Amino acid sequence: MRKAVIVGATSGIGYESALILLKNGWELGIAGRRLEKLQELKALAPQQVHIRVIDVRDQAAAKELSALIDELGGMDLYIHSSGIGCQNVILNSAIELDAVSTNVEGFVRMIDAAFSYFAKKGGGHICAISSIAGTRGLGAAAAYSASKRFQNTYLDALEQLSHIRGCSISFTDIRPGFVDTAFLHDGKKYPMLMSASFVAQKLVEAVEKKKRTVIVDWRYRLLVFFWRLVPQCLWKLLPVRN
Ligand SMILES: NC(=O)c1ccc[n+]([C@@H]2O[C@H](COP(=O)([O-])OP(=O)(O)OC[C@H]3O[C@@H](n4cnc5c(N)ncnc54)[C@H](OP(=O)(O)O)[C@@H]3O)[C@@H](O)[C@H]2O)c1
Fold first, then answer.
1. What is the extent of the structural domain holding 159?
2. Residue pLDDT, tens place only, 139-183
3. 13 occurs within a structural domain
4. Predicted local distance difference test score (pLDDT) of residue 195
């Protein structure tokens, strides 16, 4: 049985990905901060699911991941779905720093731990959900968009490092547009909303096919294509919201 760990599996895209992988016969280690949500998921397939409360901001999180991998009896795939973010037009620094601590520090902590595990094991697969928000700096969500760009670049760097060290680690970077999850339940209206189950299906397909970078869906691929063409002198004038 193939074994995957999902950090950030208590809701949204991570939760839906867990459901699909379970159906596909994977044995799972799942983590997040909310124990009751982890227990709910475990109750669906008690023999197939192992749970651990992990806060990626916690310095002990890498050790907790290692304990979860041990309990699972190994790991073939690591999925990083943990993330926070919101619009912050008034630039409240507590909100900005929270995003950095979860999406940058927490991300590095967990991705590094997964990388080290796979390097030792002789191979494996790391999949992270970043966002199309990393394409350009977004004025309404500065820390969030910058943190997602950081994630994109960090995965590029680790892919090269894996090659340098001969580690045989595969990488998948999932970049969704707006997804209807708790993440966006802030009372604002978001266009072109996708369901979490749809994005999770695309994630699982990308993992199975070992795709490197996937923008979900085609409408966002088009949007990102045009975003990239806009010169910075015009980009700064656009009222892009995220
Ligand atoms: N929704 C969107 O429109 C959208 C678009 C593009 C990219 N994304 C990205 O997709 C990923 C998943 O988000 P989602 O949309 O599925 O939202 P979500 O339902 O809010 O899920 C976020 C997940 O992250 C976990 N998490 C947050 N802080 C954590 C921490 N400190 N330690 C451990 N786990 C933590 C949450 O679990 P606990 O609260 O239990 O810890 C939850 O399982 C995020 O990285 C997000 O940036 C989302």
1. 3-235
2. 999 999 999 999 999 999 999 999 999 999 999 999 999 999 999
3. yes
4. 98
User: Whose CA is closest to atom 29 on ligand 1?
Assistant: 82
- The set of residues, in sequence order, having a beta carbon less than 8 Å from that of 23 and lying 6+ positions away, is none
Nearest atom in ligand 1 to the alpha carbon of residue 178 is 3
> Is residue 22 assigned to a domain?
yes
Beta-ladder partners of 6: 30, 79
- Judge if the beta carbon of residue 135 lies within 6 A of ligand 1: no
45 is a domain residue = yes
Distance from the alpha carbon of residue 200 to the mean position of ligand 1, in angstroms: 13
166 C-alpha vs ligand 1 centroid, how far in Å?
Answer: 32
Whether the full predicted model's pTM is greater than 0.85, yes or no, is yes
- Cβ atoms 49, 30 nearer than 8 A: yes
CATH of the domain at 119: 3.40.50.720
**Ligand 1 test: best mutation among 5, 10, 135, 178, most atoms within 8 Å of CB?**
10
State the total domains in the chain: 1
- Kindly tell me if the per-residue pLDDT of 186 is higher than 90: no
Tell me, yes or no, whether 241 lies in a domain. no
Q: How far is the CA of 50 from the centre of ligand 1 (A)?
A: 19
Q: Fill in the DSSP letter of residue 139.
A: G
| Tens of pLDDT, residues 91-115 | 999 999 999 999 999 999 999 999 9
* 3-state SS assignment for residue 218: helix
User: To the nearest 5 percent, what fractions of the chain are helix, strand and coil?
Assistant: 50, 15, 30
Residue nearest to atom 42 of ligand 1 (CA): 8
